[in-house]
Write a structure and sequence with these properties.
- Helix 3 crosses helix 4 and helix 4 (126-142) crosses helix 5 (158-169).
- The chain is α/β, with parallel strands linked by helices.
- A six-stranded mixed β-sheet has the order 6-7-8-3-9-10.
- It contains six helices and ten strands; from the N terminus they run E-E-E-H-E-E-H-E-H-H-H-E-H-E-E-E.
- It has one domain: 3-Layer(aba) Sandwich (Rossmann fold).
- It is 31% helix and 28% strand.
- It has helices at 48-55, 82-92, 108-117, 126-142, 158-169, 188-205; strands spanning 5-17, 20-33, 37-41, 63-70, 73-76, 93-96, 176-180, 208-212, 224-229, 232-235.
């Protein structure tokens, strides 16, 4: 199995705050190997979203190193230009947003196909289109939605839309999967089903995974659990994870 890993070293991020600066991340250290899930908990405003943004290359930190080991080699995410970061997100990083943000006019399978075509030529060969459709259908089948492939977002339940969201994030075989509050808009039963799905797909796809959540119910199933307070990240001693 191809080796992947995310490593965050002494990473600091600050924002302007009047005459001074507010520290969102304070020398954060974290290591997540492929196939593992590191859960991040903590109160609102503690820096969890900032950490996700930094490892997703959406924001460049003030200091520190963020290395992502991919099948194509190891890259320092903190040094990328905007163009390089955008290319890496398309090829190696899958992002599961809190809200699915699906395109209303596209069917479930088309949502995944659109992700595959990002950054490519507008016109692809019939063979490429068939291969893309086959892969999209296989991913939808893996999340239990093959029979819903022709439905648009308005025709799907909240749990089904989140499953499409997860499948879409896997379309380009990411080395890193970043997941933000995947169960916040779901009831307990659907939330549990989504977490079970995430545990399965992370293992099957061997992605290093960072998951932010307020729901502590599922924390014992995670590989490691961390708590962030005022930009400082520490392992959560109150949770016995599977690691």
């Amino acid at each position: 199995m191809t080796k992947t890993a995310l490593t965050v070293r002494d990473t600091t991020l600050t924002y302007p705050d009047g005459a001074g600066r507010l520290t969102a991340l304070n020398q954060v250290n974290l290591h997540v190997p492929g196939g593992a899930i590191a859960a991040i908990t903590g109160p609102s405003g503690s820096g969890k979203s900032s950490l996700l943004a930094v490892v997703s290359t959406l924001i460049r930190p003030d200091a520190g190193r963020i290395t992502l080991e991919t099948p194509k080699g190891t890259v320092d995410l903190a040094t990328l230009t905007r163009r390089e970061a955008a290319a890496l997100r398309r090829s190696s990083i899958g992002i599961v947003f809190q809200q699915p943000n699906l395109i209303p006019a596209l069917t479930a399978v088309e949502q995944l196909e659109a992700m595959s075509h990002l950054g490519q030529r507008l016109f692809t060969s019939p063979t490429q289109r068939r291969e893309t459709r086959t892969k999209a259908m296989e991913l939808l089948d893996s999340v239990g939605l093959a029979d819903q492939h022709a439905k648009r977002p308005a025709q799907l339940s909240g749990g089904q839309r989140q499953r499409v969201n997860i499948a879409r994030a896997l379309m380009n075989d990411p080395a890193l999967l970043v997941i933000d509050e995947p169960t916040s808009a779901l009831d307990t039963e659907r939330g549990s089903a989504v977490i079970e799905l995430i545990l399965t797909v992370v293992r099957d796809h061997n992605a290093a995974t960072l998951l932010v959540t307020h729901d502590r119910t599922h924390l014992p199933h995670m590989t490691a659990v961390y708590r962030m307070i005022d930009g400082v990240l520490d392992q959560d001693p109150t949770v016995a994870s599977v690691a």
